[in-house]
Amino acid sequence: MLAWYRAHRTPELTRVAEALAVIGGVQVLPLITLAIVAGLYRAGARAHALFLALAVGGATLLNVVTKLIFQRPRPDVLEAVLREPGFSFPSGHAMANAAFGIAITLIFWRSRAGWPVAVLGAVWAVLVGVSRNYLGVHYPSDVLAGALSSLVWVVGLYLLMGQFRPSLRGSPAGERDNR
């Protein structure tokens, strides 16, 4: 699959993939997450703010620990557009962005923005994951493992927190379920 991506690289697609890597990476995604956490907190949706922070932060911590356990080398550097430090499995970009997309979907699901947020979150996570393969810095299994790990982590966290913070299951804006 990585050979297919390499054979279909174009300068335009490479620029898009590199931009996704930056936005979904350690410099920008945490700032986006913190901005949304702050907005939720200011809006009085403290359980939602805590959930988003724990979802993305916990996925990041889980990723670091998992990489240290498996220590899988990255794909051949000759295949890659970028050079990334550290181990390959699971993809940190895929894991953090999937956690972000799933968490904001769960937060806004009962609001009017539910479907658009769900679609945007899913599309975003898929685009970031595909970009990691396109750039040659991860195997497809790294991306899949990162996304699935985040799915299990974030949904499990949501169910657990919902037991102790029932307000988490409502809309952050206090809207009624319009479905």
TrEMBL record:
<keyword id="KW-0378">Hydrolase</keyword>
<feature type="transmembrane region" description="Helical">
    <location>
        <begin position="48"/>
        <end position="70"/>
    </location>
</feature>
<feature type="transmembrane region" description="Helical">
    <location>
        <begin position="116"/>
        <end position="137"/>
    </location>
</feature>
<keyword id="KW-0812">Transmembrane</keyword>
<feature type="domain" description="Phosphatidic acid phosphatase type 2/haloperoxidase">
    <location>
        <begin position="49"/>
        <end position="158"/>
    </location>
</feature>
<dbReference type="InterPro" id="IPR036938">
    <property type="entry name" value="PAP2/HPO_sf"/>
</dbReference>
<dbReference type="InterPro" id="IPR000326">
    <property type="entry name" value="PAP2/HPO"/>
</dbReference>
<dbReference type="GO" id="GO:0005886">
    <property type="term" value="C:plasma membrane"/>
</dbReference>
<keyword id="KW-0472">Membrane</keyword>
<dbReference type="Pfam" id="PF01569">
    <property type="entry name" value="PAP2"/>
</dbReference>
<keyword id="KW-1003">Cell membrane</keyword>
<feature type="transmembrane region" description="Helical">
    <location>
        <begin position="143"/>
        <end position="161"/>
    </location>
</feature>
<feature type="transmembrane region" description="Helical">
    <location>
        <begin position="20"/>
        <end position="41"/>
    </location>
</feature>
<protein>
    <submittedName>
        <fullName>Phosphatidylglycerophosphatase B-related protein</fullName>
    </submittedName>
</protein>
<keyword id="KW-1133">Transmembrane helix</keyword>
<feature type="transmembrane region" description="Helical">
    <location>
        <begin position="90"/>
        <end position="109"/>
    </location>
</feature>
<dbReference type="GO" id="GO:0016787">
    <property type="term" value="F:hydrolase activity"/>
</dbReference>
